[in-house]
Amino acid sequence: MIASIVAFCSLGALNVTQELAGAILRDIEGADPDLVAEETLCLVTIVTLRAAQAGLREWPDAVAAAEPVLAALPYTYRRYLTGLDMLDRNDPSLAEPASVEAVDRRLQRKQRFYEGQFPEATFPGEEMLTSGMELWMGRISPPKLPETPSVRLRKMGLARLLGAHLRVVGAYCRNVVASEKDSAGGAEGNV
Q1: Which pLDDT tens digit goes with each residue over 97-132?
Q2: Which residues of 68-82 are buried (b: 16+ CB within 10 A; e: fewer)?
């Protein structure tokens, strides 16, 4: 069951990250693609993790098992992209420890920022999500744009997109818990 939860949440997180980043890069001239990708993946990872924690609240063993894998999503995805880049450039130096550690530190700082915006095991409701996404929009926007991050976020409708992803993740996790309880005769199952 844990593998199913992690796979579902990861696929959804990567999909919505691509949708959000794509919308930003299409609509905001001068946005840095690497910055947008990293910030977006870190934001989406944290809110996906929070939605999963909330959905799995009644099954703490599942949270404990799934959480580290989901939290590592930005690092795992970055390693995947580095592997593709190594093949494309035929350059194994891209995987040197110093390079990997620098990227990991950068991702860790970004992820910690979003962890501070979204409390553990709390489903990111509309107000919390919008507030956190306004900060995200400010972090990824180039300077001197004519409108504020909150206006851009509202005009682009991105909070609705991410909110839908979170509702699906939460519902999936609650359904897994219900199925596990049914199959275990009402008792918590083993992870």
Answers
A1: 887 898 999 999 999 999 999 999 999 999 999 999
A2: ebbeebbbebbeeee
